[in-house]
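Much of our argument rests on the idea that a fold can be written as discrete symbols. Part of our work consisted of pairing the sequence of a single chain with a tokenised description of its backbone. No coordinates are needed to read the tokens, only the vocabulary itself. The record that follows shows the chain in one-letter code together with its fold in token form.
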Amino acid sequence: MANRDVDGSAAAPPGGRLGLVRLILRPIGYWSLAWVWLTIWFVGILLAPGSVAYVYADDEVQLGTVLRETPFIGLVLLVVLFVPLLAAIMGPGAMFWVPTMAWPLALLSFAYAFRGLRPSYAREPLSCTTQAPRGGTPGPPTIGTVALSLKPVRRTRYTDTLMKWYMAGWDLHMEIFFAALPAGVGWVALCAWASQDISTPVRQGLLVAGCALVLVSVVLVARAVRGLFAQWDEA
């Protein structure tokens, strides 16, 4: 394990303090890094509702007309290939993994920025990076070693909780993937509802179905995450 801050420097020698420049710059570095991850999180959470709002606001998006003018084989391909692909991208991808990849790292970086202002942390790095061998971490196979950055040097219950979400966001856990799929289908339904050229009864049904599917995914994802965290606590 390499104990290094965002500037890449290692711990102070025994009995010594970190350099003055580093003590001044590392809170700024972590603060800046936190806002980068916070921006990524903000963009991530806007992907799904923003796209629905765009379809609703843009009169030129006429999904009903497109469907009516599409030949039968095209509709089959749309239902069999395109809709499942969009559901997988927008459900597990946009609604869970993109935001969850970012917000734990943002909060960890904010925590390190505040720790960097405290004299009790002046003799040590605030975060570290660990390298695990291929196959030594949960998730899909990797080509080489797996690096986990921004891990806390001093662990607390708060940082442990953030690290669990960190791992949930950066590993492909199939239980979360399948739990978030209904939200992706719901997003497709809500995009269809947002199109103004579809009949009112159909749009109302799509609205109810879309909202219900998103809520189902919220419950299923929460259950999957709790189960995943319980497995890690027992390990």
In short: The chain has one domain: 20-234. Confidence is low (pLDDT under 50) at residues 7-15, 135-139. Strands lie at 127-132, 146-152. The CA atoms of residues 27 and 118 lie 10 Å apart.
